[in-house]
Amino acid sequence: MIAILDLVLRTPLVPTAVAGVAWGILGGALPGISPSIAMALVLPFTYGLEPGTAIVLLASVYVGAEYGGSIPAILINTPGTNAAAATVLDGHAMYRQGKGAEALGISLYSGVLGSLIGLTMLVTLTGPLARLALAFTPMSYFALGVLGLSVIGSLAGKSVLKGLAAGVIGLMVASVGSDPISGLPRFTFGRPELLDGVAPIIVMVGLFAVSELLWQSSTGQWPRAVAARLRFPNGALRKRLLKPQLIGGAIGTLEGVMPGTGGTVAAFLAYNEARRWSRHKEEFGQGSPEGIAAPECANNAVAGTALIPVLSFGIPGSNSAAILLGGLLIHGLMPGPRLFEESPELITALYVGLFVASFALLALGMAALPLCLWLVNRSKAWLMAFIYALIFSGIYSINGSLFDVALVLGAGVVGLAMRMLGLPLLPAVLGVVLGFLVESNYRRSLVLSGGDHSIFFEDRIAAALLVLAGVFIAASFGTRLWQFARSLKAPSA
Amino acid sequence: LSSVRREALCSLVLLALSAGYWAGASRIGDTALADAVGPAGLPRVYAIALAAIGVAIGLSAFVEWRLRGVAAPAAESTGAARRLLRGAGTVAIGAIYLAIVPLIGYPFAIALTIAAMAVFQGERLSWRVALVAVAGAAALYGFFDLVLGVSLPAPWKT
């Protein structure tokens, strides 16, 4: 305890965590600037900082951005971050019903809870969970990707067929770039910029933010944000939210520790599971408070638990975790068990910094809201103009590439076409996020087995995950069939 | 668009996409490093899956057409055309930005983009629009280039 107090008093840990959260909320709230972009933008500033302070700054930006992303998701139907895409469904529906203040309050409350759950898991379960992640084989990773894809049926909206079509389109986009086994270029059209594939962030910003702008360009003025302040849930609602929050926290913990998935998949899975276990299933998609609580708790929990494989094995589970890994390497710190032995003060600083960041999120989440409301209440023409400019600037800042800006514009056109054809966007995003994970590990597994598919059922973790995916798919189709049967009965009743 | 027409159009688009993707997968070269699945293996599976889904959507549109017929309300068709035109205008502004930014640099290009978008979305062309666009561009340039150190396109730097 004395060491922690000394750390807090001797180092600029607290102001760094507060500044990181503030920048994270602002960055996350701006469509086009994901947590990883927000973190990447401050990365150059960490050169001159102490390693512990630098890592706290990056991790705090991550925490702030995961919440910040939900603000535009709720207020203007545009997720500020990838992980906030699941929050759009019910968050914006609540806003349209005049419950924007409650939606923002649930998001912040669940986000803080998720951060604390993630931090608790990070501190207490690093060892056992890291050992579990260490036991993962390519077969397990393939099965994990299939599990992620299995929720497409639930995210498909009115038509499962269209959801599947969108998912396949996402997988197609994920196959662009160098082949994961042989290195041969695929669908690159001779462009060297495409050899590394199409970054999920570009697809997501294009599909969600740019296509939203294209869609909105033919609509009238946006409704003004009526939420004058943020309203935390009352006792009865807090009790109702506990189950989806625990589901979100549990899924966020598991997804965070498993490389390759991250906050987006965690948010979608948490949303799906919260709906499955809810007593108010019919409210999901129509403005359910549980539909905000579960994904927000999950993606904020991931912000903490995603650090477990990074710190333990140097395996980044997401873009943001990769930036954090870059921050460690910049300061000459090699992640792994030796990091805990050689730099315990850095680990302590990170834990304390994340704890401070969780509470700073609570305070800054409320304080930053007037600025967000002011922004949302500007005229639609100016907002669209500046969002467009911000997207172009933010995307350019990732790689300094105008080609990326052109890609994001192209993804926006595809998103507009998908909207007009009634194809849902979320399954396509899942396909893009999980495509590489699924293909690379599927093929690595078959290389190991000499082409024998039974290897996926000989690996116990993989078999369990595949069975779980099968249950999800069967449950989705079962629900659809049940709904169809009810709709047939309804007219004759 | 009416439900039937939209489903039929969706079916055709998916079939065209799967055909194009299949053609692209067929052009992926061979290598001695390839595994049993090969670099074109899963892309071909994706193309077949998308074609199958496209056919299924087309069949469901056909069944719906036989049962209910096609009735496209004129207002919906006009709305879709307007949406496409407005969307194309917004994309054109982005495309012009991409074309001019290497020539005139980020600050001027982004100012023109902001002003063009604002006017396209309904603001009246005025000195106020020009002032806000220039101020916005200066703020964005200051933030990204000067504060964050992102090297934005500027021909005068080279």
Describe the structure.
The longest helix of chain A has 35 residues. The mean pLDDT of chain A is 81. Chain A has 493 residues and is an all-alpha fold. Chain A has a two-stranded antiparallel sheet. Chain A is built from 24 helices and two strands. In chain A, helix 2 crosses helix 18 and helix 5 runs parallel beside helix 19. In chain A, strand 1 and strand 2 form a beta hairpin. With 158 residues, chain B is an all-alpha fold. Chain B is built from five helices and no strands. The N and C termini of chain B lie far apart (51 Å). In chain B, 31% of the residues are buried. Chains A and B meet through helix 10, helix 11, helix 20, helix 21 and helix 22 of A and helix 1, helix 2, helix 3, helix 4 and helix 5 of B.
Keywords:
heterodimer, A: 493 residues, mainly alpha, two-stranded antiparallel sheet, 24 helices, 74% helix, B: 158 residues
Taking the alpha carbons of the first and last residues of chain A, their distance comes to 68 Å
Strand order of the largest sheet of chain A: 1-2
- Give me the oligomer status: heterodimer
Relative helix content of chain B:
over 70%
Low-confidence stretches of chain A: none
Counting DSSP H or I runs of 4 or more residues, the number of helices of chain A is 24
Largest sheet of chain A: 2 strands, antiparallel
Strand residues, percent of chain B: under 5%
Biggest interface goes to: A-B, 59 and 76 residues
Q: What structural class do the secondary elements of chain B suggest? A: mainly alpha
Question: How would you sum up this structure in a few lines?
Answer:
The complex is a heterodimer of chains A (493) and B (158). Chain A is an all-alpha fold and 493 residues long. Chain A has 24 helices and 2 strands.
